[in-house]
Amino acid sequence: MDKKENKRFYLIREDVLPESVVKTLQIKEVLKNNPSLSIFEAVKQFDLSRSAFYKYRDTIFPIDEKLEETREFTLILYVNDIIGMLAEVLNTLSKLNLSVLTIHQSIPMDGRATITLSLDGKDTDLEIDEVMESLKMIEHISNVELISMTI
């Protein structure tokens, strides 16, 4: 790949990552929490080679670590078309200390609609999955998906 080209990013669940990548994430966390620990000691503790650690350390990071820097993300909610649905969603977001940056509600079809929300979470301590679970608890929301985030 040409170095001038943009790098592509993916969201991927931890359970499908290779063991060396998961260990790299664990080592980064240990080093972050214990600055006196050397990289040599940390990789030895997790039975990973230093070369594997150095290969992945600058290319893999938890979503929430990057969100600490920006805290902006976009969700899509699949909802039943009932009066007051959007108001209930906005009320819940307010209680979670989230700011709405943009909002779009689709035209309902067959009693269903989508609500797309770009949110700023700098004033909340919640992680994305906790926000999504809180929204899923609202009656008449069938699903919530993360569709983008600012990194």
Task: Please summarize what this structure is.
The protein is an alpha+beta fold and 151 residues long. It is 36% helix and 23% strand. A 4-stranded antiparallel β-sheet has the order 2-3-1-4, covered by helices on one side.
> pLDDT under 50 segments (min length 5)?
none
What's the multimeric state? single chain
Mean pLDDT over the residues: 88
What's the CATH first level of the largest domain?
Alpha Beta
Query: How do the helices and strands follow one another from N- to C-terminus?
Result: HHHHEHEEHE
Q: Would you report the number of β strands? A: 4
Structurally, how many domains make up the residues? 2
Number of helices: 6
What is the SS-derived class?
alpha+beta
**Residue share in helix:** 25-40%
> Largest sheet, order of strands side by side?
2-3-1-4
Please identify which CATH superfamily of the largest domain we are dealing with. Answer: ACT domain
What is the first-to-last residue Cα distance? 21 Å
The radius of gyration is 20 Å
Q: In CATH terms, what is the fold-level topology of the largest domain?
A: Alpha-Beta Plaits
Shape: elongated
CATH architectural type of the largest domain:
2-Layer Sandwich
The portion of residues forming beta strands comes to 15-25%
Tell me about the biggest sheet? 4 strands, antiparallel
InterPro entries: ACT-like_dom_sf (IPR045865), ACT_dom (IPR002912), UPF0735_ACT_dom-cont (IPR008310)
Organism: Staphylococcus nepalensis
Family: Belongs to the UPF0735 family.
Domain ACT: 74-149
